[in-house]
């Protein structure tokens, strides 16, 4: 008996990955990966070319597919559905002032939080609309549709149908779709861009939105897809009380919730998830690259970097690393720069510098978890994922930075796996995502919290003295 196969795609800032899994059991059958160029804007055709370079090798025999991709990216299209300008990505901070202006125009952060659950930041699509309207008015005037990266790839995969499709998870990151109301706010679109847009239809979580005949031997059903954080949450089976801290290019902390949130401070984005619930999320611009940049500065590989960090005592001898190497999103400091504080002749060792980099990375993320807690989101455990989670020193430091047990599951392609699980859900017609024992990541490492409050206190004090936030 032949296995029914499903595929999940993760189209991220840095690469595209495809996993193919057994629809019933979740068993991994095959996988492939291709790179994306670095940058903060890109021709969306490059994403499609990268996907097409690996898809023929892995999609043969697949019955359903779903695409999960980086959130917020602005793909502007004209009346003929042609790309107007290179897509502006989440990590492009040129729209920082536009975000501030939009907050003022609506009457303050609380108005935005009540309208769409989130306060605009530079990363949000709505802020990029305003930037384009101000700096590229000709492109703004030509733009009739704006889609997100996963929407665009899903449309191409389906053969360019007349209708664009998105899902509630990714739509909630635009800044003009309300998770609690389940509706677009065209008044906010017009405030940002100067005119309304044709917007993608928001599909049901497990809807089959089309079929693809581009790859494989027979038509492949297409599920709605979602944003990258929503895809990872779906793979991990995030439930209320679970907080995921993801250490990728950016750092995120998000939690399962049955209720939508509205944080007027702007720290917590009130996102939806890919199942019909909610995924309040805090995102920092700097995460794993803090560690790679510090290791490069120290001229060591990651194994030696971990050894150095573990050799230092908690607190790094008084060093505090503000890790805003690429500006920062939360707190909203797009023009900030990284800095090292508390330096003395005694504490300026490679060991302390290595550990301070990890403590700095978690400084912002522990603030993120606290912001979730302040909104009433329960935190029973912290699940740390992402490439940097494999560094042996990361778990040691994490135990001193959070007030709940810290767990690290095995390394995995959780975004792509979540997309594959959504594809299986669409085929199954079940009321909830299928349970895959083989995808259940289990826990490879777990530590109870080790209270060292002075690390976080010093981080917060230095941050406030440096940037008044």
Compact description:
The chain has 469 residues and is of the alpha/beta class. It has helices spanning 44-58, 96-106, 109-116, 125-135, 137-142, 149-157, 168-171, 186-193, 228-236, 288-298, 302-311, 350-374, 392-399, 414-428, 453-467, and strands spanning 5-11, 15-22, 28-35, 41-42, 62-69, 75-77, 87-88, 145-147, 165-167, 177-178, 183-184, 201-203, 210-212, 220-222, 226-227, 241-247, 251-255, 269-272, 278-284, 320-322, 339-341, 379-385, 406-408, 445-447.
DSSP strand (E) fraction? 15-25%
CATH superfamily of the largest domain: ATPase, nucleotide binding domain
Count every helix, treating DSSP H or I runs of 4 or more residues as helices: 15
Look at the helices and sheets and give the structural class: alpha/beta
Main sheet attributes: strand count, strand direction, barrel closure:
7 strands, mixed
Per CATH, the class of the largest domain reads Alpha Beta
- What is the third-level CATH name, the topology of the largest domain? Nucleotidyltransferase, domain 5
Mean of residue pLDDT values: 94
CATH architecture of the largest domain: 2-Layer Sandwich
Query: Could you estimate the helical fraction of the residues in percent?
Result: 25-40%
Query: How many domains would you count in the coordinates?
Result: 2
Distance between the amino and carboxyl termini: 61 Å
**Shape, principal axes of CA atoms:** globular
The value of Rg in angstroms is 22 Å
Q: Which residues form runs of ≥5 with pLDDT under 50?
A: none
Q: How many distinct beta strands? A: 24
């Amino acid at each position: 008996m032949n296995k029914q196969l499903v595929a999940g795609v993760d189209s991220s800032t840095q690469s595209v990955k495809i996993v193919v899994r057994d629809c019933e059991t979740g068993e991994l059958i095959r996988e492939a990966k291709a790179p994306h160029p670095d940058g903060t804007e890109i021709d969306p055709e490059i994403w499609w070319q990268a996907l097409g370079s690996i898809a023929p090798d892995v999609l043969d025999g697949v019955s359903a597919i779903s695409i999960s991709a980086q959130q917020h990216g602005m793909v502007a299209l004209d009346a003929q559905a042609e790309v107007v300008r290179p897509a502006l990505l989440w990590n492009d901070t040129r729209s920082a002032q536009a975000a501030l202006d939009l907050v003022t125009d609506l009457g303050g952060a609380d108005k935005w939080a009540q309208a769409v659950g989130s306060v605009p930041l530079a990363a949000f699509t709505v802020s990029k609309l305003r930037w384009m309207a101000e700096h590229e008015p000709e492109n703004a005037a030509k733009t009739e549709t704006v889609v997100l990266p996963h929407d665009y790839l899903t449309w191409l995969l389906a053969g360019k149908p007349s209708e664009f499709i998105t899902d509630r998870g990714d739509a909630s990151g635009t800044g003009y779709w309300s998770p609690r109301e389940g509706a677009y706010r065209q008044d906010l679109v017009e405030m940002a861009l100067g005119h309304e847009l044709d917007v993608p239809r928001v599909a049901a979580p497990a809807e089959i939105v089309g079929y693809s005949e581009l790859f494989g031997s027979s038509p492949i059903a297409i599920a709605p897809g979602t944003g990258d954080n929503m895809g990872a949450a779906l793979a991990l089976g995030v439930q209320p009380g679970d907080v995921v801290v993801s250490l990728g290019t950016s750092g995120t902390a998000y939690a399962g919730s049955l209720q939508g949130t509205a944080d007027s401070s702007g720290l917590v984005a009130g996102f939806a998830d890919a199942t019909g619930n909610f995924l309040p999320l805090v995102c920092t611009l700097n995460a794993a690259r803090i560690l790679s940049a510090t290791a490069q500065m120290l001229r060591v590989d990651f194994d030696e970097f971990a050894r150095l960090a573990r050799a230092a005592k908690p607190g790094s001898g008084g060093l505090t690393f503000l890790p805003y190497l690429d500006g920062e999103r939360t707190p909203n400091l797009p023009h900030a720069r990284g800095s090292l504080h508390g330096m003395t002749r005694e504490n300026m060792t490679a060991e302390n510098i290595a550990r301070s980099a990890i403590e700095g990375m978690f400084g912002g993320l522990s603030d993120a978890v606290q912001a979730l807690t302040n909104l009433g989101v329960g935190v029973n455990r912290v699940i740390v994922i992402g490439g940097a989670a494999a560094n042996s020193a990361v778990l040691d430091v994490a135990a001193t930075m959070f007030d709940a047990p810290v767990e690290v599951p095995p390394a995995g392609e959780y975004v792509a796996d979540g997309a594959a699980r959504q594809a299986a859900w669409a085929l199954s017609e079940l009321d909830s995502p299928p349970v895959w024992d083989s995808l259940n990541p289990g826990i490879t490492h777990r530590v109870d919290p080790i209270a060292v409050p002075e690390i976080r206190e010093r981080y917060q004090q230095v941050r406030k003295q440096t940037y008044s936030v």
